[in-house]
Amino acid sequence: VQLVESGGGSVQFGGSLRLSCAASGFTFSTYDMSWYRQAPGKERELVATITHVGGFTLYADSMKGRFTISRDNTKNTLYLQMNSLKPEDTAVYYCNARGGTVGYWGQGTQVTVSS
C-alpha cells in the first residue's frame, strides 16, 4: 500500500496550491479519503474528507470556502485545492485512506505560507 503526496511548497499569503495524493496497493474507490495536517508543536488535525459513496465532503470550519477536496477514482488520486492561503495554514499535509477498521497514511508534504 502506498499513498504519495505531492504539490506542497512555499507560497505567499493569499496564494494557492493544489496537493495530490497518488494511491496504490488497495481498492481506492472503496475507501473514504481525507487530508490532515500537522503544524509544528500541534496535534494532527482533520482538514477535509470525501466519502467513497456519493463523494460527500466534510471540511474543518477554518478551511470551509477556501479548500476543496476531490477525488478521481479512475486515476486513484486524491486532491486538495487550497486557495486564499494564510500563514496559519503552514503545516505538513497528510493523505489518509480509511476503509472500515483499516487505515493508511502517506508520508506528508510540507506547505509553507509566508506573510
Q: Got a strand count?
A: 11
Helix content: under 10%
Distance between the termini: 37 Å
Please trace the helix and strand order, writing H or E for each element.
Answer: EEEEEEEEEEE
Low-confidence stretches: none
Q: Tell me about the biggest sheet?
A: 7 strands, mixed
Structural class: mainly beta
Rounded to an integer in angstroms, the radius of gyration calculated over CA atoms is 13 Å
Relative strand content: over 45%
Quickly count the helices.
Answer: 0
Q: Average pLDDT value?
A: 97
Q: Globular, elongated, flat, extended or rod-shaped: what is the shape?
A: globular
Key phrases:
115 residues, mainly beta, seven-stranded mixed beta sheet, four-stranded antiparallel beta sheet, 11 strands, globular
Structural account:
With 115 residues, this protein is mainly β. Helix content is 0%, strand content 56%. The chain contains no helices and 11 strands. The strands form 2 sheets. Strands 2, 4, 5, 6, 9, 10 and 11 form a 7-stranded mixed sheet that branches. Strands 1-3-8-7 form a 4-stranded antiparallel sheet, with no helix packed on it. It is globular, with a radius of gyration of 13 Å.
